[in-house]
Each structure stands twice: as structure tokens, then as C-alpha cells.
Request: fold
Amino acid sequence: MVAFKTTSAKVFKLKDNKSTLPYLLLLPGLLWLVLFFIVPIFSLGQMSTKVAGADTGEFVQGYRFANYIDAFSASKEQFFRSFLYGILATLIALAIAYPLAYAIAFKSGKWKNVLLVLVVAPFFVSFLLRTIAWKQILGEEGPVVGVLRGLHLISPQTSITSSAFAVVTGLAYNFLPFMTLPLYASLERIDPRTLEAAGDLYANGITTFRKITLPLSMPGVVAGTLLTFIPAAGDYINATILGSPTSKMLGNVIEARFFKIVDYPTAAALSFTLMAAILILVTFYIRRAGTEELV
Amino acid sequence: MKSISKWLSNNLIRIYAFFAFTYLFIPVAYTFVFSFNDSRKTNLIWRGFTLDKWKNPCGAPDVCSALGNSFIIGLTATAISTVLGTLIAYALGRYEFKGRSSTNLLIFLPMATPEIVLGASLLTMFVNVGFNTSMITAIIAHVMFCISFVVVTVKARVASLDPKLEQAAMDLYANEWQTFRRVTLPLLAPGIAAAALLAFSLSFDDFIITNFTAGTVNTFPRFVYVSAGRGIPAQANVIGSAMFFLALIIVISSQIISARRKVKI
Amino acid sequence: MAVDASTSARGDLILKNLTKSFGEFNAVDDLSLVIPKGSFFALLGPSGCGKTTTLRMVAGLEEPTSGSIFVGETDITEMKPYRRPVNTVFQNYALFPHLTIFENIAFGLRRRGITDAEVKTAVDKVLTLIELPELAGRKPNQLSGGQQQRIAVARAIVNRPALLLLDEPLGALDLKLRRQMQIELKWIQTEIGITFVHVTHDQEEAMTMADTIAVMNKGKIEQMGTPEELYDSPKTSFVANFLGQSNLIPGKVSGSDGDNLVVDLFGTKVSVPKSRNSATGDSVLVGVRPEKFRIALEGKATHGNVLTGAVVSDVSYIGVSTQYQVEMPWGKEVMVFEQNDDDEEMLRKGAKVVLSWEPIFTFALDGKDSATAGSN
Reply:
């Protein structure tokens, strides 16, 4: 019996045979990832330096790295907005999800499994339907605006949708299970006896949380914030449905450059920059954990 | 008074959880309620209760073909990614090999990349090689982003599988394949099933990557997005609600089955 | 972070009519107890008897259904755990995995606003006491089970509580380490003079360490006393069987002889000291511990209480002693432990023997008691 739970349940010794079997097992899947994840990234990089071909209208390789500068200066507003919205949405999701995960981990008794299902269940409805539902609930004809106007909390001109507020809260809402589940997983690992011990050693409720619970839940916080921020920063659906032209995010720009104005090099440059920026952020953030912990 | 404040401090967080769950379910409830709306062209204002849309879920044009495409892509991508991911998870969980950390990194990266980058890069590659986007490219893309999630899910299950069981099987004259088929696979089954379920839901619900890689093939999320401008038909609500209940039933029954199994032993 | 006045309360631990119910079931049933300040007290009993629940109520980790808990003059019944002058050594130690050993031990001191310099002095002192000063910078998962156990004790006693509660702290240790820790804990208690309340199901552990033992069964105290009192003069069959082993033979009081009772055991008369009799009526269970019996071949000279007509039915040689199962004329078996301290040959199965013992070693229980309560 150990004094507390270790992070991985029982580590078994791995087979050390020199056979090629593990490589054979890995090959198909890894090959798929190389072909359809790694190679496309290179394609993206390659495209980002192309220029419009004079005659054909196709894009030809021009090694024009200035594409990046052009793309960034044209869209730097959306770029920063994506990161801002991403961070805000992550913080809001953290604030909402932490107490929820705490309640499920410590205060739910025999209902724990039911509650876990209930956290994930809303996401069985297509996220587009849910986002559009929010648009209609918060929109002009919806009940919320009517009540708020009736109470004179907002003026007849202000609308909740088509605003940055709606986009950010939409983002936070969409990624709540990605925040809640990792938080729950790390809170659940905490031996409740250590919390009792803290109380036994003169720490009141708040101090116990600050000194014991919170530090021990940090792995979950790191995982949850990453799993929320990354997709949030690159999202454009919420901005399209719940936002206005002034709240467009980088994703909107990229989508437009691919499908509306066919400007693949700019779009590729923007995508590449987004990916690089996020990867740099994530690397700093994950410095602590080794790769085994991530997967 | 003292007992009320005591009850409150004990239960404050439970009360909060109740409100949080309510918040989570608001759009779900809205979608469900409006699937009964007697809507005409748009489903924005409540006109009256009707079961018509439920009786005729394919009534709106394109809705069911989009749904069908979602299922085809989803089931195919799930099948392929579950097999590939399980093999990787088993290798990672059972064997020592060089390049372990590179493998882990390769699995992790797609999960850390925004969907728009995944979609854009795939589209770029297809454009470069002159391959037209179609259902095939959509399936390729879906398999790609599902593999990582399958690996993570199954790997956890492999880690908790005592290798002594496989050793016992071989001690009792089973060769590698028989051991895998009769001992390993059945014991991994719940994890593989969970991974498959996860892969399917990710694929079914995907919009961004599909938008970039499916060409003109309509999927359910694309259908909803496109018709959002003029008002999605109530049939979409019907289908969305139906998928919700279906998924709920699957998850709950799998929980009950695994709980029963524990009691039997 | 001022020091709470309540954490400096001192005195005897007094439990008054303490009850803890879960629905219909009373885990702790109207328990009243006084544990004198500075003593080493053991709560002994089988699992489910309520001893851990009692401990947790004293620590403040469970709420009593009714009754009260006092430390000296201070009523701590309603107090939160962090207000009580009580510290606990948990069964699986509950060390904080993310803090160093130093910070684990310092935790309680810091909460009470002790200055950094004083904290360092106190922690260093207690680490020296448990002889592990070199572990201060390590983390709990780098320590062995025995080391973790000692750190858990250190973390509690550094706060100089009025009471130290130990919830089966030695359960996870192997036999040799456990014996060593028993001696160490006893030594620490004598050194620092804090009241120790030790919960255990191991009767040897309780008898080794405690000044006073309370044997608990089904939420109630069966008997309380020193280890010698409980062992030599058990008052119920539960206590007789739970502590060590007993042979309980039904009999009837047939008369009195000075300080002794005369009891008829299936036709044979034996003497039982009146001071060791807990029965109220004539129907009694006569108790003799297996090591008190002397066993000899029929015909040999005997003195004291004597039972004849017995036959050896099983022999187990255990090095230090030999255990005999002996079938008595009335059909039941008794156990006899003979120390192998002479040259006499071991008796064989089927040998006809006579059992004798000194009357002073006999005790008597109420005849209505179950002869098997407390045995396992």
C-alpha cells in the first residue's frame, strides 16, 4: 500500500525483445500521420512563398518571404484578436469549469459517473446547432434580450449577438468539456486523506484549497487550458455566427483567402504563422512535462 | 440560523454545479424544443407545437443526404483510425523501442494544432498534387485527426493490462496471435470501444476540416452552417436531438453493462 | 494567522455518551470514556467495531450524532478540525506529495503563525528525534514505508498537541519494522509526554504499547484496563477470546471456599478466585489460558485444579512451544501450550493425559456469554 496515488496506475515492465514487431505495429498509423499531417505542413510552407503566376493564373514558387510580412500587416488586428479572444475564452472556461470539476470529484458521491456523462452529453448535439441555438437565444427575437430590455439593463439599440462578448462566451461554452475533464481527472487523483490531514494541521477550508488542492490540480489546469486555448484561437465559426465584422478572427481571414478571394499564398502564410505562434506558446507552457505525460 | 449557514457552506458548490449544468444544457434544450416548432421557411419564431418534423425528418431538402454523408465518412474514418490507433497504442504500451519520444510527439502534434491549420494544409497539399477534394479526401482527413485521440484512449487501457495475463496464455500453449485474439483483445475491448465512440463523435461533428477537404460533399454540420443564413429547418433540430438521445443511450448502457460486469466477479 | 486559543487547550480527553449512527446502525453506541492526560491509550477491536469512527470524531473528521467531547475543560464537540488541539497520524500517512519533508512537517506550524526561525528549530528538533535529519529536502515518494510512517508521526507531534491520534499507523509495515516502530512510538510518547490514542486491531500491538486498553465491540466498550487486567481477568468472553486465546468451559457454581468459588465442571470440582469472577448467577464459563495448563501422562503427580480423562488429539511443534489439542471427556477440545523448556519428550497423538493448573490463573465469565465471541 502506498501513501498516495502515483500519477500512472502501475507501470509494467515493457518487452525488450529486439524484434521488428513494434515497428510493424506503428508503421501504418505513423505513415498516415506523416503523409497527411507532416507533409501537408510542408505544402503549406511551400505555398506560403508562392506568387501569382503572370500568365497561367496559377501560383508559382517565388520564394517570396515578404508574403509573411504582407499577410501579417494586413491582418494583424485579427491575429491579435484571435489570441486575445482565445485567452479570454480560456480564462472564462477555467472559471466555470474548475468549481464544476471540483463538485464532481469531491461532492458527488454515487452520482459521479452520471455527472461525468452529463458534462459530455450536451456535446452529442452538433456544435453548430448549439452555437446557432445561442445565437437565437441571445438574438433580437430571443427571450434574453427581451427580458434585459424590459428591465432597462440594456438599451433598445444594443444587441448581445454580433458582439465580441457573444463570440468569447460562445468559445468558452464550446470548449467546456475540454477544460472540465482534465481538471476532473487531476482533482480526482488527490487522496482525500491529504485534505483531511491539512485540516488536522490547522488549515481551514480556503487555506487547504490554496496550499494543497490547487497545487495538486495544476497538471489538470495545464492540460485543460491548452486543450481550450489551441482550438479557440484558431476558431472562426463562433466569430461568424455570433460576431460582427469588427470581431472577425484570424480563422475568418484564412477561410476567406482560401474560398472567397483565392489567395492561397497569403492564406498559407497566415496559417503557418498561427501554427508557429501557438506551438511556441505551447512549448513554453509544457516545458515541465515529458512527452509521455502528454499522450 | 447556524445550521442554515452550515448547510450552505457544505452545499454551495453543489448549487453552483446545478447552475453550471443548466447553462450547459440550455442550447440543447432549445434545439430540442424547436424541433417541435411548426415552422415555415425559418425556424426562428415559435409558431406552435407539432410532431410533423419528427414524423418526416427528411422533409427539408438535402438534410438526409448530408446526414448520410456524415455517417459514411464517420463510420469509415472510425473504422480505419481505430485499427491504426489501437496498433500504435499497443506498441507504445507494451514494447521498448527507439524513437519513442518522436512517436509520442507525432501523436501529440495534431491535437495541438488548430483545425484550421490542419484543414488548410491538407487542402494545400491536395491542390499541389492536383487531387480533387471529395469524400475520399474528407475520409483521409478525418482518419488523420482521429488517430491521436484513439491512441490516447487505448493507451490508457493498455497500461492497466497486466502483462502476466498474456504470459499465462503463452504458458498455456497459445501463440502470439492466439494470445492477442483471445486474451488481449477482449480485455482491451472496452477501451477500443470508447476510442471508436470518441472518433465517431469527433468525425461526425467536425466542420472546419471537413469544410476544407470535402469539396462539394455535404455533411450534416456543413448543411447546418450553410442554411444558418436563411434559418435552419426544424428537421435539422430533429436530427440533432435524435443523435443526442442515441449517443446518450449508448453511453448510459455501456456504463450499466460495465457496472454489471464488475458486480458479477 | 494568530494561534487559535482552542488549539492550546490541555487536559484529559473526556468522551460523554458519544454516539454515531448511520441510519439504523450505531457505529459508536453511547460511549463514555476518560483518557488521562499523558497516557498511552489503545482502542482495540475487530474491524467494524467503531474504534476508527470514534477516533475520527475526536479529530473532528466526523460529526457525532449525539454526545460530547472535552479536552480538559474545553468542549471541542462542535469545533472544526483545524481548531482542535488534536493531531492525527493517518493510516496511509497522507503526506502531501508536492511538498518536501521539511514543508510537510512545517505545515501545521506555519498555519499557526509560527515564525520562520522557530519553525526551522522545531522541525530540525523533531527530525533529530526520529533520526531522519537527512531527509528534510526529499519528497514523500522518495521515502520507504517505514520512513514515511515516521515523518507522518513527526508532522503531527511537532505541533505539541494535547492529543495525538494514531489510526492503525503500523498496518502497512512488515512484521519486523512494525515491532521496531512499536518500541519507537512508545519511546517517543514517554519522551514528549503527549497523550497518545492508538487505534488498532492487533492485540499484541495494543498490549505492547499501551498503558490502558479499551476493547471495543459493536460500538461499545467491552472492558477497559491495563493489559494485565484485561489478559488475566477478562470480564466477557469477547475480551477473553480477543486478547490471546482462552479455553472456556461451562460449569455450575456449587459452593464457596474462602476467597475462592467452587465450580463443578462436568463432575470435577475446580477452584476459581472470587476476584476473577464476573458472573452474576450460578451458571458460569470457566476460563483457563492455554499456556497455564500443565499436561502430563496419566498417572503422574499433579497439584492445583485437575482434569482427568483427557486424550491428545493433535500436536503442533512450533519451536518455542508445542501446541496440543486435547479432547476432554465431555466431547469438546481444549488447547494447551507447553513451552519446550525441559527434556521431557513430546506427547503423542492418542496419549492419555491429565491437565492441571494453578487455581489463581482461573477466571470465570457469565454463563450466558457466547463461548466463541471474539475468537477468529
